[in-house]
Each structure stands twice: as structure tokens, then as C-alpha cells.
Design goal:
- The protein is an alpha+beta fold and 158 residues long.
- The protein has a single domain, classed as Roll (Bacterial Protein-export protein SecB), CATH 3.10.420.10.
- It is built from four helices and four strands, in the order H-E-H-E-E-E-H-H.
- Strands 1-4-3-2 form a four-stranded antiparallel sheet.
- Helix 3 crosses helix 4.
- The chain starts with a helix and ends in a 5-residue tail after the last helix.
Length: 158
């Protein structure tokens, strides 16, 4: 009986767990073909990152860290790398703010090293210049996103 009571109280505790980390998708395009390897200087790199999440079942969420890296110059794309690094997370007994923080900050922070490795590996295999994905402050990014959303919902005065 004591064991059952202990398990019941433990089930009411906040919980955040990783069920799976996986590569959802990756794509590397080199539209200019061999010309990219003949360049004396690599075009500037553009990096875009987006965090998305979806509820899969009760207390189970998928978080996708989508990153696009491209090299463009004079209207030409020399390469385009897209990677969707994903994870399935179990989250229980948290309030809405804690849930948002776990989905927008904690989960992407767990996925980022995997994403970094996939990006580095893809570029290396294609013999493109190496790129190290910088550390990302997901807390600051989430706060900025929330501020932008709040500003867009704020009534405008005329």
C-alpha cells in the first residue's frame, strides 16, 4: 500500500523527459554545381533557425529545430542546407508558462548539439567549407518572440 501511495504522489510531480531524438529531414542542394568549388571566396552565409512544436498525444510533444544555411551572392544560390532536428518529449504536471519554456527553451537546447553535428557532417561530406553552428540563447529568442507576439496583439491607438 505504501508503494502505491508513493507512486501516486510522484505522478503529480512536474516531469520533463526525452522519449526520442531523431533527424526528421535534411536536404543539401548545390544549384551551381561544380562552380561552387571554383570560387576564390565563399559567398556570405545566411543562417535561419526556427523552433516549432506539436502536441502528439496527452503529455507528449514533438519539437522541431529547423535550420537553413545558404550561401548566396549576386542573386545566385551556391548551396542550401536544410536540417530538421527533432525530438519527442514527455511533459507532465506543469503550468502553461513552464510548458512554453520547456518547448521553446529546454527542448531546443537539447536538440542543438545534434543539429550542429548533422550540419557539420553534411557540409564536410559535400566538401563545402566548414561551418560551426554558434551557440543559441533560446531563452532570449523565446522572450523576443513573446514580446513580438504581444506587440502584434496590442490594440493600436489612432
Amino acid at each position: 500500500m505504501e508503494n502505491h501511495v508513493a507512486n501516486t504522489s510522484a505522478n503529480n510531480e512536474p516531469f520533463f523527459g526525452i522519449q526520442r531524438v531523431y533527424l526528421k529531414g535534411q536536404s543539401l542542394e548545390i544549384p551551381q554545381g561544380a562552380q561552387v568549388f571554383l570560387l576564390k571566396e565563399m559567398p556570405p552565409l545566411n543562417l535561419n533557425m526556427e523552433v516549432r512544436n506539436e502536441k502528439l498525444a496527452d503529455n507528449v510533444y514533438e519539437v522541431v529545430l529547423r535550420t537553413t544555411l545558404s550561401a548566396e551572392m549576386d542573386g545566385k544560390v551556391y548551396f542550401l542546407l536544410e536540417v530538421d532536428q527533432s525530438g519527442i518529449f514527455e511533459i507532465r504536471n506543469v503550468n502553461d508558462q513552464q510548458l512554453a519554456d520547456l518547448l521553446e527553451i529546454a527542448a531546443p537546447s537539447i536538440l542543438a548539439p545534434y543539429l550542429r553535428a548533422h550540419m557539420s557532417d553534411m557540409l564536410s561530406r559535400a566538401t563545402l567549407p566548414s561551418f560551426y553552428l554558434p551557440e543559441v540563447n533560446f531563452a532570449a529568442a523565446a522572450q523576443q518572440k513573446r514580446q513580438q507576439e504581444a506587440a502584434s496583439r496590442a490594440p493600436t491607438l489612432h
